[in-house]
């Protein structure tokens, strides 16, 4: 199925001239992603998968770690490569089961005429921007650093200052 998606993205300029076909393909792929990749194959990519890979590299890389869950491994490799070609849109809009579920729920809410909250643009930008690190009290930064050191067994933060 990833091959079909790759061909679709490679030919998106010509395919976009047929919006009905694109719409049908998109919804078919949404269902495939949600039900097969998401529910059946349990292929939800997350930061935990990256953390596991980094720990495997740290402890001496073994290919067996990648084979513990081949679906996740294949999706990560495909996502990593496609990120440099088409950007994050391919994963976020086509391969993420959470995004697919959210998109389907929004479509269903629209069809059922449920009230949707529109967040003003200014508020959305304020909520999306990261806080100024200088405004975080030193005690909170220290607590975060102590937590990080205890969580990683003292391996994190070597040579770094608070």
Can you describe what's shown?
The chain is mainly α and 162 residues long. It has one domain. The protein is 70% helix and 0% strand. The longest helix is centred in the first third of the chain and has 22 residues, at 19-40. The protein starts with a helix and ends in an 11-residue tail after the last helix. Mean pLDDT is 77; it is low at 156-162.
Characteristics of this structure?
162 residues; globular; disordered C terminus; mainly alpha
Number of helices: 10
In what range is the share of β-strand residues? Answer: under 5%
Reported for the largest beta sheet, the result is: none
Q: Give the helix proportion (percent range).
A: 55-70%
Gyration radius, rounded: 21 Å
**Whole-number mean pLDDT:** 77
Order of helices and strands: HHHHHHHHHH
Number of strands: 0
Distance between the termini: 46 Å
What sort of overall outline do the alpha carbons produce when their principal axes are compared? globular
Secondary structure class reads: mainly alpha
* Sequence stretches where pLDDT stays below 50 over 5 or more residues: 156-162
Number of domains: 1
